Amino acid sequence: MLAFAPAQYFGRQQDDVLYFIGARALAMGRYCLLTSPGCPPLTMINPAWPAMLAPLAWFTERPGPFQAVSALFLAAVPAALWAWLRRRSDETTALLAAALFASSPLALSQSGAVMSEAPFTLALLAMLAAAESGSARTAGLAAAVLLLTRTAGVAALPALAAPFLRRPRDAARALLPPALALGSWALWSWSRIHSVEKFDMFSLTYGEKPLAKLARVAASNARYYASEWGGCFFPPPLVESPLAALLGALLAAAALRGLVLALRRRGDDPAAWALAATALMLGVWGWQYERYMIPLLPLLLWALAAGLGRAAKPALAVLLVLQLAAQTLPRLGRPSPWAEPELARTYAWLAARPRPALLASAEPARDGWLSGLPSRPLPVAESGEDFAAALKAGRVTLILRADGRDYGLDADETAAPRREVERAHRRLEDPRFFRKLYSSPAERTAVYEPR
After folding, report:
1. Band of the pLDDT at 217, cuts 50, 70, 90?
2. Who's near 196: CB < 8 A, 6+ residues apart?
């Protein structure tokens, strides 16, 4: 896995910049967005991963060492998966599952990315191992780290509660640490912005008619993640083909069988509850990213092996050969397709602007970092006049419009965040309020200034 790092240029996902800035801020005794005027609180990312990286920020402000440490965290996941799975299965199955994870393009594409999936997955496996062994206090502490790494850890709480429900004292020991962790984070966030952003994102997805949209989102997510998993075993021209989606669906069906069998054997099986709840959460979450499958993949591989029964070892071996031949080995030693920013020329133009300058965009942390400018998000306004006034009040001097960007909402044209970005971009075309300074048809970008 280390041979593929860094699989992406720093800043490609925006959140990697936020985690990096969060680590630097914590090293300074703060937790705010250092690259934005006024240093607004970093309520959009949980603090555990920045806290793990903060000691590194005492020695360097270069992204390279942070990428190296992130690659090491991800490389530790296959070993943790093997150690966990060999207690639930035989040695060969555990080794095959670990090898499938280690060579998966879903994981390799994130090698060296300063993202939270790797520490989250390690905390999840630690929580499951502790819960399965009956260590309530250790499981609770791991769950607290899980929630402080990503709020998505809420989906793992049923797995934490299930084995201890009949023992009230152990249930309290297990559930108190994550409750305190989540409550403290929510209170801190609320004290700063009167909101808890991750929970607010559900309302952004579903709006006023959630039931009418739920089935559409679930169907879209099922197709997407089935295709992503199945595509791991096909060469690049076929990764988005119906064959990939079909294989992914068949693997998911086998994993579902394994999940059902596990619950029949033991109704409080932590791994089964973690898989069911996490899959349900991803099924209704409005954003689609392949990296979301990284924490789910160990559970899927366990359930797949359980569902295949005696055929597990030969089937996993065949999948490993297919994955190595179609995806992993052909990528080894080749330049990453994400080695350079897609908007490199636009960022170079922005970086050359006279200082001081303040940039506004739909992805301000990413765009500000890559252009070397302080930045802030595009304002939300009821009218074009209010939009322009808000930018002027914020002392914004440059506004970046980037069309065709992936915000994880491509499958949902009605999503509120997507509509708001599109509305803001249309308002920039109003010559009463904005003047175009630069455009790049090749990169589908334009830069404006307020009049």
Report:
1. confident
2. 43, 186, 189, 190
